[in-house]
Amino acid sequence: MKVTIKSWTGVATWRWVANDDTCGICRLAFDGCCPDCKLPGDDCPLVWGQCSHCFHIHCIMKWLNSQPVHHQCPMCRQEWKFKE
Amino acid sequence: MGDVENQQDLNDLWKYVCHLFPILCHENDDENRQDCTGDELNIMQRIVSEGQEALVEELVLNEIETKLRRDIVPTFWHHFSDSDVTIRGLEGFKGAVDSLYDSLSTLVPLLQTLELLRQTAQSAREVYGQLSLMETFKVMVRASLHSQLPLNYQAITEDFYRISFRVFCNSENKETDQNESAEDIVQCAGCSLEIEFCQCQSIIEAFHDINGKLQELDLLERLAGDVLTTMIHKRIENHVQETCKGSFDVSHIGSLEVWLDTVVMGWLSRIYSSGSFGFRESENKASLSTGETLSKMKQTLRHFLYETYTRTRIDQLFNIIIEYPDSEPAVEDLRICLLKTDLRQHLTLKLQRALETRLLHPGVNTPDILTAYVAAIRALRTLDPSGVLLDTVTQPVRQYLRWRDDTVRCVVTSLTEEGPSELAEELSRGEALQLDDLTPSEEDTKNWETWNPDPVDADPSKTSQSRRTSDIISMLVNVYGSKDLFVNEYRTLLADRLLSSLNYNTDKEIRYLELLKLRFGESQLHYCEVMLKDIYDSKRINTHLHSDTNFNLDNQEFAITAMILSAQFWPHFNKETLELPEFVQEHLNTYTKAFETLKGNRTLSWKPQLGSVNLDIELKDRKINLTVSPIHATIIWHFQTKNQRSIEELSQIMHAPATLVRRKITYWQSQGLLHEIGPDLFELVEESGPRVKGHIPSEIVCDDEETESAMASAQEQREEELQVFWSYIVGMLTNLDSMPLERILQMLKMFALQGPTTIEVGLQELRHFLDRKVAEEKLLFYGGVYRLPKS
Fold it and tell me: Where is this region: Disordered (chain B) (predicted)?
């Protein structure tokens, strides 16, 4: 007997490759979306800082905008720089 | 000397009196009667001048009464008591009434003379509360008759009136359908004698005669009233039953009223208006009272008719409801009748009982219950627009539905079902969903004039507004009191559908989702929206990955497409494990790499048990093409390397539970590719010999996997959600030692339930959860409080 697979439709779930499950700012899952968004994934991406912490982009932007002088990572208080 | 003269005078006078009133003299007074001569008027004047008129009157009346009691009445009743069944009825009753009438007639002259005496003396006094002597006489007759009432007299009167009513009805019918010649009928329908000897005419005559006589004596009501009433009631009941049989699509009120007016009232008025003989004093007065009696009777009978009709309809109400849109006339009838009768309570009880016996037991399918419930909602809404009736009657149905496991699933399925489904129709009407906990709106001040109070049996804790406005879908959702359950169930259903069809075509689902959004609100169905978008995105990603040559997907031996889901928004998947063949896994890994390149920082975790596979299977003598699930594909894949494998072996290679493998392998048995050669040992069938083919059907276990859901059941999900609270509860009990249920819930609400993902927890649910923990010995329950076991 010989079995030949002609096509395979699989089911998978996607997830972010990050060092945590939840966003440190909104405490919601990375794989979900920030409180202001409706759709996860492309519409509500993650960003990494040079300190290796990551957040929902909308969350960290909100945080940075609320900081008057120094832009610090809310987790480690280092200066916040986006990882290239 | 004067005394003697006086005595002589009195003796003379007595003779005259006796002459006037023969009833006073007895047999031995014969000589007195003979030599009495003289003018009546003179005698009367003498009596009056002696001042004896009162005494005479009293004597005469006394004598009449004695005669009545001693002779006439016993003779009358005698007719009733000794006659046996065969000859009673018409003849018996007629004879009795005739003889009574005759003997009473003999007394009439006496009364007339007495009346004359009264006029001469110009005296008027009441005897037995009646001014006129004739009335007094009638009172006496009635009193004597009643004082000697035998027990069984009604049987005879009833017989009599039944026969006459039948004759009457028959003649009525004859008038209406004369052209229908019925020559083959030998018996007359009226008197049940042969047609040639039909006595209908004579019966009717006798009937009128008797009624006339009784009416004159004012005895009709007393003697036959009861019988008449019961008979007519029975007749009405029969007629109503006959009319209502089976047909709910015609309104009967009109025809029933006409029937009452023409047939029944016609008969009654003939009874009451027949005859006018000597006993009647004033024609006008009598006919006036007859008219009054008739109209009074008509009112009572009409009420009775309505009541009977209503009762009959109430008995049939369950069937009426089941057939609802067709049975609208019956419902409308019932609505009108309920306004005229006081049978609401009866209706509620009856219908509830009918529902309980016919609907609310394990033998009925949930979809059927739901259909009946929807029909009931519609029918009862028509019956009682205020919705109170609906609320009370369907209470047990709702309770029962809450108890059934598959209710939610059934509702959701029928909501989104294709084809003619009432609920789907209802859904597409698209109104916003209203729940019970709607805040009472301000009373509409513009319409205050049309305001009506709620019926007495209304539940005062609910606003009439909420009862009136809630529609069918809201009613169904309200069975559980929360939208969440329905939304979750819909989510599971949607997930199942999307993952089983796997064709990326979501147009239909989007349409339903839009309709549901109108009902349940955007926020509740947000998750479902993401799910549909996942499918849409997956399609795009697949095309993109396959079209871009950088990803090397085209060089693979078979094409891989994927459904890429956002796990957070989908229901929990069943935790089934499956190890795919390495060959396949490599392909999947390539796909994952392609995905990772496309979307930086994201990766895929495959759900190996989900999806579908298209296979070509080449055997020695045939080639088959099949589309199967991954687990089926894996099973048959492993038979390539080895012709015989046991369940245990497969289970180890595939990392799947043996029971699952055992269940899935039946599919290949039914396809005739595998054959069980020993317990749990299977062999590949390379050549389909006749032996195997004949062997197949008996062994095949029906493959029921189509109905299997890839999702964890709603209950399992719920359990998982509650599990989140367990750590809170343990913390609470560690600090506070012991707590009652209410306090635990309160604490949970204060601390644990305030997150962004609010989960509703009811007291019952929590009790359930904690009770299970008690059963698992993780908790102690003693004296109404929960505590942790001492470890």
Answer: 434-465
